[in-house]
Prior knowledge:
Elements: H1 3-17, H2 19-46, H3 51-66, H4 70-78, H5 84-95, H6 102-140, H7 143-151, H8 155-211
Amino acid sequence: MSLYEASVELLYIFSTAFLYPVILGLLLLFAWSLALFGSLINEYTSRRRMLHELEDLSLKAAELALEERAEDAAMVLESYKSPEQVSVTLAEMGRSLKTRPVEKKLEKILQDAELRMAKALEPLRIGTKVGPILGLMGTLIPMGPALIGLSEGDVKSMADNLVIAFATTVIGLVVGGICYSSLVVKSRWYRQDLSDLEYAADIIRSRIDEAK
Length: 212
């Protein structure tokens, strides 16, 4: 066997060895994407935004902070009905009102909240890329055995491999589509949440500055 033939044989063996891990990865990603879609619908039905309520709670928290009651301020802000990460950030903002300078502490909390939101979106960005990549791999890997089956007249083997190729393509695209759609929707939600948090922080800062 020549060096070229040995190299081709090794490439064929290595490429076909990835087929089952790729299929398993696609199935896991598909199950995860379905769960993700369900959680997206659940979050959509439970999300609420009451800007007037947020304004009132922010002013009340600022008043409590001026009375040196930072923990009560945190409880007031945390009572705002919102997604968990927003409630957590609001509570941190309330507790931070006992520290000085308040402006710097609030700015740091908002930056950390932005980083947490970006981190929460990272799996969606990865799924958007990895799903179609695995789908493409699942398409190309069975094509080698399918062509070999065609050359040998084994139509059944060729058909089985083509079924795998087409199925993995579809699953990969579905995973990528769900992840991309979720990424777009959640990015908009998180931008709105961050805007509301910044607004609440501005209200608190302004009220405290007025009292100085």
